[in-house]
Specification:
The chain has 989 residues and is α+β, with helices and mostly antiparallel strands. The chain is built from 32 helices and 23 strands. Helix 21 packs across helix 29.
């Protein structure tokens, strides 16, 4: 039989650890008592000779030793929550930093390098001074000054930087033995660029040098060329290349060595590609094909630069500063953009002109554009990520509160006893806070430490703040719940079930306030999207995120939970009366038990609804990203594969379409004629000078089927009904026939309602717009005009659009290769693989995936906590009913049906609320920036958020399955325990 000092769960009450002295210490004071016995130590019954009683164990240690399992479970929960809380800001910092570095490193050298340049001093400067400013020593000193004066956070990567003197205009090579493809002499850039030996490997000969001082009047200098230049222009070691000089004989450039770049992609070489390899350049003429000539570079030693003053190439000094991104973080983006702008046209440029380079120095770079693109991407992604963070944060907070509430409920009798013996709320709350803090604070520190280990290269302070907030909530949950619960005397045996509880006025006001906030957040999100307030986007700060708008899913879930809790008793009352008339007692008992569930059941329902809503929103975001990329791949090809002419041939070879149709995995082949640049004249405009459009000739039925399958401009084949005659009348072309056409919106606007003349290689005719569609498979994303190929004079197809769910790309390429080398094959799957994630996109997707997983875990934990709170009572009830003849099968049914109403409410309500949230918020969410990067060649009109059925159904089914599994396990466990253990004399349960 249980002693009166034990709590209802069999745990020792305050007297178990030494009687009342456990609470008040050796002086036997109760927590916060009136002090009537203070200062008068009692003598224990066992004291001898007036010796004082031995001090009892402290409160905290005693409580932890009494319930170690609960302490360990709480510690694990806090470790997980603190880790997630600390890892989120660090993950955002990390992927934003990696994204900025990736954007800079993946840009071309011309875009990311800061080039400081200045023309050589003119004739007004003494000749000796002009020559001195071009020598290697002066240029190197200036390089060091520029690097030292770079404003933070701009830093130089000296291993990739370059400086020297070059001719800004190409110089003709006059030697007849040089390669001349179309009898045009090659054009050279003479560059005296420093550190050639560090960035190249000598293949033949030796590096150039200037043994004697080189001046403007020097007749011959040494140079090196790369192996690619030597091969293309027939240059060998010992060759002398002659270039014209201004006002005197030619300058000879003797080739002393052939070098190979060590890292051709290094900006030392890639900023000016002709330094590493020559290029064939077309001469802009009206001839077709246009004649071409070689552009190449001759690499002089730095001290030979003064000779460039004698050339016609207008020498230019340059310092190309490659940015060092190793120490760059996302938080540096605003300052980086500001400093680069200052260097291009601001105080930093004034400093360069005044004290470093000269009065005509110019700074050129597109680094600020790269940073602006990164900040724009960040401004688009951050609010969407904040939705996931706020959702999971809300669920985690509810679960922590539920954990504290579970402990408070299990210790209700103990705390009530302390209160009845004079314990103050302050004293009880302080001791509960102390025993909780002993467990929570080390656990939160462990979670923070794990977050720092697993997510490096991020700021520490936001992670500490997030982990501290989780720890504070975990510490406060138990004492606050206990203090609020016991602030007034509790009647014994009073009912607190959902059916009998009436919401108070304060609760009604709070719910109406939350409803107003939710409505405002949804309206704001639908009107202006997930971006921050006007003018704040892209600032790199907190202003990028409007947290009220991003919390819309959480607020919607909260309102739904409160509404469902209010409506929940109604179906229980309606179902309880007919169930009472049934023969079996299981149905009536289960409904009665469900109705007697504690009114605190709103917390688990809130956790489940918010978790399911966040999972539905996150799953829909991920599904929307995938769908947008699939659509972008279709827009890039128009079908599963696209075969077109890559050369100058106007039509595909005969028999190609039939051969492609027999290729492995091909289901259908649609041949079309695509003609680019067809002039389309508006009113009063000459057709020969009008802006061109893409004209497409198709077989209407096959093409309409393809458009329907790809979802690009679906139309009826009857819209392109042939006018007959094949475009010929009386043996010649019929220019007066009017063809029905399908056009893009821009083309339809230019054509108007009247027939318009079309002059094309396929024929001359008139067209009238029959339908308007934004896209079409043969030319997606362009201004197009679609006509029936049967009405064209020239109908030979130029493109094949191939369909096949299991298309074999390699087999298709082999088939096409047999018809010539001027044919290209473009596969949809290959285009899809090019839409790879940038670090920012990948980081955002990882956070959403983690949010879905964490939300599912917290939802399951909330359900377990909810069921565990009433588990002892259910087990005892089952034992009592078994003594009355309840069978094992009926016991399982009873427990299962008892949890079914709340589980069903959470599952169905969560799915509906998740669907409603996605539908409500979809107009304000555009996933284009999450799906495609800024450099993508494909343009999507938009990627709206759409509800993903799997994200709605699977979590809801999981809730029902877990609830059923828990009830089965409880019934099995109750069956293993004897009824004697549960029905003990004196037990009040």
């Amino acid at each position: 039989m249980r002693t009166p000092s034990q709590d209802p769960n069999g745990n020792g009450g305050p007297e178990t650890a030494g009687g009342p002295e456990t609470v008040g210490g050796p002086e036997s004071r109760t927590p916060g008592g009136d002090g009537a016995t203070r200062g008068r130590p009692r003598r224990s019954a066992g004291s001898r000779g007036g010796r004082p009683a031995r001090a009892v164990a402290p409160w905290v240690r005693t409580r932890l030793r009494t319930a170690p399992g609960a302490a360990v479970a709480m510690a694990v929960l806090v470790v997980l929550t603190a880790y997630l809380a600390a890892a989120f800001p660090r993950s955002v910092d990390a992927y934003e930093t990696h994204g900025l570095r990736h954007d800079i490193r993946s840009a071309t050298a011309v875009e990311r390098v800061l080039e400081v340049s200045s023309p050589a001093f003119g004739p007004g400067v003494p000749r000796a001074d002009r020559e001195e400013t071009l020598r290697g020593a002066w240029v190197a000193r200036t390089q060091r000054k520029i690097v030292r004066g770079l404003p933070a956070p701009v830093r130089a990567d000296e291993g990739s930087s370059a400086y020297g003197v070059r001719t800004s205009e190409p110089i003709e090579g006059t030697d007849p033995w040089l390669a001349a493809p179309d009898n045009l002499p090659p054009m050279f850039t003479l560059a005296a660029q420093a550190a050639l030996d560090s960035h190249s490997t000598l293949r033949e000969g030796r590096l150039p040098r200037a043994d004697a001082p080189v001046t403007e009047s020097t007749e011959e200098v040494e140079a090196a060329v790369t192996a690619a230049t030597a091969k293309s222009l027939h240059i060998e070691v010992g060759s002398v290349v002659h270039v014209p000089a201004a006002g005197r004989d030619e300058i000879g450039v003797r080739i002393t060595g052939i070098v190979v770049p060590r890292d051709p992609d290094n900006s030392y070489w890639s900023f000016e590609p002709t330094l590493r390899s020559p290029a064939l350049v077309a001469l802009p003429t009206d001839d077709r094909p246009q004649p071409r000539y070689w552009r190449a570079a001759l690499l002089l030693p730095p001290d030979a630069a003064p000779v460039l003053l004698a050339t016609t190439g207008e020498p230019q000094l340059y310092w190309r500063i490659a940015p060092d991104t190793d120490a760059l973080t996302a938080r540096d983006a605003p300052a980086l953009a500001s400093r680069v702008a200052s260097m291009k046209n601001g105080p930093e440029l004034t400093e360069l002109r005044t004290n470093v380079v000269g009065p005509v120095a110019v700074v050129a770079t597109r680094l600020d554009d790269i940073v602006a693109g990164h900040r724009s991407m960040r401004a688009a992604i951050s609010p969407v990520v904040a939705v996931a963070a706020l959702g999971i944060g809300a669920v985690a907070a509810v679960v922590l509160v539920m954990a504290g509430g579970l402990i408070a409920a299990r210790r209700q009798a103990e705390l009530g006893l302390l209160r009845s013996r004079g314990g103050s709320l302050t004293g009880i709350g302080g001791r509960l806070l102390a025993e909780t803090a002993v467990v929570v604070l080390p656990a939160a520190a462990v979670g923070l430490w794990l977050a720092v280990l697993t997510v490096p290269e991020a700021r520490l302070l936001p992670a500490v703040a997030a982990a501290g907030a989780a720890a504070l909530l975990a510490c406060a949950a138990l004492p606050v719940r206990a203090v609020v619960r016991h602030r007034r005397p509790l009647p014994h045996g009073g009912r607190e079930d959902l059916v009998r509880t009436r919401p108070s006025r304060r609760r009604t006001i709070a719910e109406l306030t939350l409803l107003a906030l939710a409505i405002g957040a949804v309206v704001a999100l639908r009107r202006r999207g997930t971006g921050g307030a006007s003018g704040s986007a892209g600032t790199g700060g907190v202003g990028d995120v409007d947290y009220l708008v991003s919390s819309a899913p959480v607020l919607v879930g909260l309102i739904a939970a409160l509404v469902l809790v209010r409506l929940y008793p109604l179906p229980l009352r309606l179902a309880g009366r007919p169930a009472g008339r049934l023969r079996g007692a299981v149905g009536f008992l289960s409904l009665a038990r469900a109705g007697r569930a504690s009114s605190s059941g709103a917390l688990p329902l809130l956790a489940l609804l918010v978790a399911l809503t966040t999972a539905a929103f996150g799953g829909s975001v991920l599904a929307g990203i995938e769908s947008a990329r699939e659509r972008a791949a279709v827009l890039a090809t128009g079908a599963d594969a696209r075969v077109s002419v890559a050369g100058t041939s106007p039509a595909l070879p005969d028999g190609l379409a039939a051969a492609v149709g027999k290729s492995a995995g091909v289901d259908e082949v649609t041949a079309v004629r695509v003609e680019y640049g067809v002039p389309l004249a508006s009113d009063g405009e000459d057709p020969r000078t009008a802006r061109g459009v893409t004209m497409i000739g198709v077989e209407p039925r096959a093409y309409a089927r393809l458009a329907r399958q790809t979802g690009l401009g679906e139309f009826s084949a009857d819209a392109l009904k042939s006018v007959g005659g094949g475009g010929v009348r009386d043996g010649g072309p019929d220019r007066n026939r009017v063809l029905p056409a399908i056009a893009s919106p821009a083309v339809a606007e230019r054509l108007g309602d009247q027939p318009r003349d079309i002059l094309s290689e396929a024929g001359e005719f008139k067209v009238r717009v029959a339908e308007i569609h934004r896209n079409t498979p043969a030319a997606p994303g362009t201004d197009y005009l679609l006509v029936n190929a049967a009405d064209l004079t020239q109908r030979a197809p130029t493109t094949l659009l191939v369909g096949g769910a299991e298309l074999d790309g390699a087999a298709l390429r082999r088939t096409v290769a047999g018809f010539g080398d001027d044919l290209s094959v473009k596969l949809r799957t290959e285009e899809r693989s090019t839409f790879v994630n940038t670090p920012m996109q990948e980081g955002a997707e990882r956070i959403y995936a983690a949010a879905i997983a964490a939300g599912a875990g917290y939802a399951l934990l909330a359900l377990l906590l909810s069921l565990s709170q009433t588990a002892p009572e259910r087990v005892t009830l089952l034992a009592r009913l078994r003594t009355m003849g309840l069978t094992t099968r009926q016991g399982r049914q009873l427990l299962g049906l008892e949890v079914l109403p709340q589980a069903l409410l959470a599952a169905v309500g969560g799915a509906l609320v998740g669907w409603a949230t996605v539908v409500l918020l979809a107009p304000g969410v555009d996933l284009v920036r999450l799906a495609l990067n800024a450099t993508s060649d494909v343009t999507l009109d938009g990627a709206p958020l759409q509800a993903d059925p799997w994200s709605l159904v699977l979590p809801a089914v999981g809730v029902l399955a877990l609830a059923g599994a828990v009830s089965v396990v409880q019934a099995w466990w109750a069956g293993r325990q004897g009824s004697i253990n549960e029905l003990r004399a004196g037990d009040s349960r």
